[in-house]
Amino acid sequence: MSAKLAAAILIDGVIDASWLFIVAVGLTLVFGVLNILNFAHGSLFAVGAYAAASAAGWYYGGDLGPPFFGYLLMLGAALAVAMILGPLLERGILRFFYRRDEVVLVLVTYALFLILEDATKLIWGAEAYYASEPYALLGNVSFFGLSYVGYDFALIGLALIVGILLWFGINRTVSGKIVLAIIHDRDISRAMGVNVNRVFALAFTLGVFLAALGGAFTAPKISVQPGIGITVILLSFAVVVIGGLGSVEGAAIAALFVGFARATAIHLVPWAELFIVYLVMALVLAFRPEGLFQRMSARKI
Amino acid sequence: MKSRGFAAALVAGAGVLGSFTGNATAQDDNVFKLAFVAFLSGQAAESFGKPAVQGAKAVIDALNAGSLPKPYDKVGFGGLKIEVQLIDEAGGATKQVEELRNAFERDHVDAVLGYVSSGDCLAVSPAAEELKKLLVLFDCGTPRIFEENKFKYVFRTAAHGAMDNVAMARYLVKRGIKVADVGAMNQDYAWGQDSWRDFKGSLAQLEPEAKTKVELWPKFGAGQYGTEISTLLQENPALVYSSLWGGDLQAFVLQAAPRGLMKDRVVVLSASDHVLPPLGNKMPDGVIVGARGSNGQFAEKTPINDWYVAALAAAYPGLIPVQPHYRAAQGLLGLKTAIERAMAANGGKKPTSDEMAAAMVGIEWDAPPGHIKLALGDGHQAVQSNAAGRSKWDPDAKMVRLVDIEHFAAECVNPPPGVKAADWIAQGFPGAKCD
Lengths: 301, 435
Prior knowledge:
Chain A is built from twelve helices and two strands. By secondary structure, chain A is mostly helical.
């Protein structure tokens, strides 16, 4: 294997992994804190993409200011989606099912996914939206004869920032410690005076924000149209299951695994790309049935 | 006791009411009830479903007003006004079979025209045959419908997908484009597999020196092609071929163009005309584009095409017509030709499914994409001419124009009757009539 090929696989793997991490971390967070497998994650990604595409279209179409401000606008769009949908879904629908079986919650989130798919079609229609100006803003990067778009490397930076902020927030702040306590034992935390419902609302909103963030920053690379949420759900599930449901570090490592696996497959064994993700998942689960990083839970008698 | 009697009365009453309403919608001899099936939601809606519905609506409204040029100037179908019912093709093949049955048995439609997805076409054809009702497929591309089955009540008014790739290979030859190697990227499902097989086979016959360097198979709907693009850049083939379509193709072009994949090499996108309007100036120049027929900008100047372009412009100002618009029109005009032929044979009455099926065998008619003839599949499968061209952005008109256009006669790119498309290609196109 030539050095150029190895470099290409490495870079492609990291780019893919950072995209996977940004897209999947919201799902694992929501499961970790609320114990909900959020099937609607894919359509929240799609809503974020549509919102960012609409915002970018309005901004760049009207030539309203400096081009780089568009990035802030996309971030703002994701934030707006989270502020609106997070409390609405969590307080309005999900909280009635907290005491029920986990399977019921999966069905509820699946219903939300279907509703959101149709809602996006009602609001934005079936046509394609583009937000491609931000994609070209960071120029091209060429080295060793490999050519990449600067934007993809910026996404690596974004993934690192998101990962570090989450890790820091959960492990080094008081609120984070409270969240860890709730993850560990919901009822004792409640008994100790923690406002668990408020933490749930905030955690779910954060999960929605991360999904929408993934969508918003993917929008410049694609044509935003119905159906983009579906592939994302499958990939997010695979990454989250490999990493261990509820673990942010697990999602990061799993994203790297899956990213490198896909890059290697596509470069060396293209026909294996179809199933390589699920092969990795099967192999990991064969040795560690709950994923790479199992959630700490004390054995309850 | 009392409740049982009451319940029985309720059921009897409902039965009586049901028989009344049933009769009212069952058969209306002054109206032709047509069900039109295409993707109204889901991934294919924006690229194929919605344009097909736009085209169909424009033609049906004009038919009901009697405003088409001769020989289509009769109102509706032979004087019968057309009542159209739209059915969403989304939901999978099993659901579509159910919807077809509902359309014929519950809603009493006289014919169904539809289906974009090859999978749906393959599923509903046996169902229509079993119900002995007329089914006209207008869009799906798989050659398998009539190569692997015999149907009496099923027809397809558009040529199947093999001709797209034969035409692409012939375009390279006609333009003197010789390449040393080829890299392919296709969605890993029937359409992608069949398209690549047909292009590879055609190129092997016409330019045997071209070797396949790399074959990539992303999932349908993947949307992220960074690594695939890196692989193609690494392998650096002289020609890149893709049968990608819809949102996937748009994402691929948006991601590949900035990285230089579409520069300094030949890029063939076999079915791509429908992404030119949405992509606009984001589509690089010089890409070899196919439209699965002489559709859109490939259509030659004829009275029926002039009429159709004007009708679409009036109904949808600013719309750039692409292949689904054209296939919807050719399907409706083919159906009209068959129905009016049946009515001429039965004395002007509304024809039955048997009469329509008998009349439609082997017909030929003129449509916006040119002359269509049901020459294959024992007179059930259409052949038509094809074309290919290169993309060029026109900044004044603000649209992508197709230049360097070459046309290919139907007999040049479609197999002759009795030969399967894949075999015909493998044997070197025996019987092809190219000028």
